[in-house]
Amino acid sequence: MPTFGLLGPLMVHDGIQERPLGAGKVRVLLAALLLHRNRTMSKDGLKEALWGPNPPATADASLANHVARLRRQLASLGDDARRLAAEPPGYRLHVGDGEFDVDVFEAHVSAVRRAYLQQDWDTAARRSADAMALWRGQPLADIPDFADAEPQARLVQQLVETRLQVLEWGFDAALALGRHHELVPQLTALASEHPLREAFHRQLMLALHRSNRQAEALQVYVRLRRSLVEELGVEPSAAVRATHQDVLADEGTAVVPTPASAAVSQPERRPLRQLPADVGYFTGRDREIATLTTLLRPGADAGRQPLGHCPRPVVVSGMGGIGKTALAVHVAHRLHEDFPDGQLYADLRGFSPGRERSPRDLLARFLSDLGVRAESLPDDTDDCAALFRTVMAERRMLLVLDNARDAAQVTPLLPGSGSCAVVVTSRHTLADLPDATLMPLTPLDADAQEMLLAALCGGRRVLEEPAAAADILAVCGGLPLALRVVGGRLASRPAWPLALLARQLSSGSGRLRELSVGGLDVHATFAMSYVAMRDSEKPQEQAAARAFRLLGLWPEHELTPHSAAALLGLPVREAARLLDLLADVHLVQCPTPDRYAFHDLLGEYAAERAAAEEAPRERANASLRLLSWYVAAVEKASRVTVGETQPPPPLDEQPDEPVPDFGDAQQALRWYVRELPAIRQAIGRAGSLGRSDVAWRLAVGLFGYADTYWWTGEWDTCLQAALAIAVEGDDTVGQAWLYRRLAVAHGMAYRNDECLENLQISLDLFERAGDITAQASILGNMAALHTQAGRAEEALAYALRSQELYRRTDSPGSEALLLGRIADALQLAGDFSGAAEQHRRRIPLLRSQARPTALATGLTNYGSVLQNLGLRDEAFAALDEAMAIRRQLGDHGGEADCLAATARAHHHFGEWEAARRCWHACLDLARTHTLPQRVQESLDGIAALERACTTGASRWKVHVQHPL
After folding, report:
1. Angle value at C-alpha 784, between 782 and 788, nearest 5 degrees
2. Number of C-alpha atoms within 13 angstroms, CB side, residue 608?
3. What's the rounded Cα separation, in Å, for the pair 224 and 226?
4. What letter does residue 562 receive in the DSSP assignment?
5. CA 934 to chain CA centroid, nearest Å
6. pLDDT at residue 305 is higher than 70
7. Alpha-carbon span 282 to 316, nearest angstrom
8. In whole angstroms, what is the distance from residue 849 CA to residue 846 CA?
9. Whole-number Cα distances in Å, 155 to 147, 293, 305
10. pTM
11. Can you tell me the distance from the alpha carbon of 569 to that of 550, in angstroms, rounded to the nearest whole number?
């Protein structure tokens, strides 16, 4: 009796009795480890098995607890701790030979298959019965959620289908041995359970006929034919029809039809074993191995496929060096017993030095290997392909077609029918290959990278220098070829510390040249993909090669078809087509729809090609096109989010291609957050091109981002960088705008002195330029500053001066802004009724302008005014709406503001516990996001609350508590 069982409910047997397994999570844990038996399964993989793709925050601790419980339950087997061992980056379950029912079952299946092909009916019947004795029901029946998830679901389906195939083989063997009487009950049940499975019906017809039950045998045929015609619109197969004719003729001596695979398989024919050696230290890719194995392994009808069946090729694609060939060869070696006639292998040289191999040459080689004499080969490629399909129809073989250029090179090499399987590797996705299953590879995950590096250079070295190992892995970017290069270099230099190689790889931009050892060369591997496109005779591929080079001017950041169109100087549709072509050949990645990015190493290669093959003027023009597009995009995003009363003057160069169409402020904010790293780099790039006019507009255009996310400090950094560029370029217009926005940034962060200083510098510059609108806006900023500093009289005076200047300009958007400035000053002066009136006029304007951040700020201030007027319910209604907006935007600084205002309101109304909850929530948020002003305000508020709670009976005053 095997120790572990999955062929039915999960089972553990100690040799005497079945042992209990306990809770569901422990059962799932054991099942996952059994499916990865004798291999390390990462903690991330185990967490996904237990909780799906989104494990809880406590998953690490829970996993450790479940492992401990499983170890205690496995202790009944009398094993030591090595049975379930912790091995970085996860755990390994040791399972010995004969201990797992799936392994034993598959061994029986292989034996049945061999005996069946050789028509050794005694052995086939006996081993079939042995295999069926292990079957206790639907695999993993007691943990259905786990069993229904991928890749387990494919394994379960494969096991179910394999069981049915073994039953068919066993019944054929029993019929050949004359045991027809004992088969009738079981075949009757199976034919009823599988009404469309022709083999069971054919076998039942034979068993009944040989038992002198001819009428019942004919009824079986009638029922089968009716089901096939009504449900599928097809007639029974030739084998079933032949058996029907035997029954009608009452030929009681009818023999079992010779198995199709036995008829064509000639045991004396020597199988071909052309696979390259399996790679040493194959690491990771557990999910891909399971998927590819399932796709290639013969299904339930292996050896009995109906005429015309065509195997579906599996295309393993990915960038150069991603490990396509290693995976295909590794899985092919694992499947050698499933293909008794062997494996054919060929390097198609689609991406190699020299010319790719033609389909005619490959067909000639294959046919020669299969025993066809050279003088018998047709000259025409199509005729050769037809002959190849004829020869392969008699065999069960696995074809490994490595390094294919395109679908046209592969299609003639595909078998047309029979029991063969085909795996193709290519740097193209080969989406146009007929009926192909596509399997793109991505870089290795962190656990697999570390395991591979440790296997190549020694686990102790990795453990002793974890920081250097992490730096090396970061440079390699999950690319197996790069990891094998650095692993080989370290293995050949055992005295080298990892830190030495890490420094060599990180110095300058020449790391690609460092990633070379012996015949392994990352740079040369990338060059094969690029040069094949650049030197192609197809104009489309030549255009894609140019696009690849120009994208190398912006390698660190994702691009969309719109931004790429600006960079390439092409219409959006043409840019999108080239991006898709580059993605199809895995020269760029497409992590999300309509967003494209380089793998780090490919980005460096593209930048190298741009520097070597594009003229300096073209590089500068392309960069400027992209920067101008970003200027237009940030200006539009700022208009949508804050609706500035005076946007900056437009740039002279306007992009030819459209910028994003922001439906609302939230969409614009999401774009800001996603593009911020690119905008930050664009400012520096503009400076290097001597374009301060571009740099300062990019920084100023981030106003819409900072209005919500000022607390991150990102805007300050960008403004300071742009100011340095403007000062160096003596750009006084840029300086005026930058000082103006720097003042706003300081004011948002409560740096009042710095705010006033920058406002005054900006005001002086705009007065010299005679810009009345800018002066009005700056005076309004000064009003806000004096309000923040607690100077009501000065605040109101500046607000009224700002209003006077605005009346001299055409600035319709200024009304809401001015109403807010006046309301804040009146509130500070203690005129709460006047402030409330200003807010009531202002808030509808903000709603109509669809400015969520300004609306949230206005509602917060309005709530505070209503609090001072004693209007409790109205105050909390305004504060609640403001809080909902802040949280929806992910505005942590604004959320802290709103929490503080809500805490003060609760305190004002004597609701101590609610106030305390708000202050502590504000304190936690402020500490998490480094908001020192709010930290101190929260501490002061908590202290004031404690003092209030200790004064007299008011400590226990009962109020309706307002929830957070």
Report:
1. 115
2. 17
3. 5
4. H
5. 37
6. no
7. 16
8. 5
9. 9, 10, 21
10. 0.60
11. 10
